[in-house]
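Researcher: Please predict.
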Amino acid sequence: MENYIKDIQDIKKMMDRSSQFLSLSGISGIMAGIYALAGAYLVHHVAEEKYTLESLTFKYILLIAAAVLILSVSTALLLTLKKARKSGDMIWSSTSKRLLANFMIPLCTGGIFALLLIKNHYYGLIAPITLIFYGLSCVNASKYTLRDVRYLGLTMIIIGLFATWFMGYGLEFWALGFGGCHIVYGTVMHFKYDRKQ
């Protein structure tokens, strides 16, 4: 009877591995949160009350945002590769391709929408839009990875909606979502999954 139950558990694990990408690193979530908080801190100190697309302030903000994005993505890739090698998983499989496609469609849509808002000077909506579309990306991709990603996504969507309600506090909500939530999510993921390997 015990062997039968163990066989069923092994089959279930194999099925989960074939349908889900399980090599996401909790530490990469923590690092993304730290980068986001550092970026928000820098933006808070360089931003003026009013600025234009041509202003030096806006260029600084774009540079900070690009640095946060590049650091977050590169850290996530490096740590995910390391975790995948350690657990013997393939990094580029049909599951990871589906995960990436489902994550990128809402994310790219939100990115284009944010750029159009910037072009039309709707700066107050940038933080809510990036939070909401990132949350939708996580929810959309969660069927191909750990279930906890769905909860991160839903939390981001809720924070994005609050950021829309309390217009004028976009940077604070952005820091809470991309900074605080990533740190909490990454810590939970690390202790729940990473340390077991």
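Model: The helical segments are 2-19, 26-46, 56-87, 94-119, 126-141, 148-165, 170-192.
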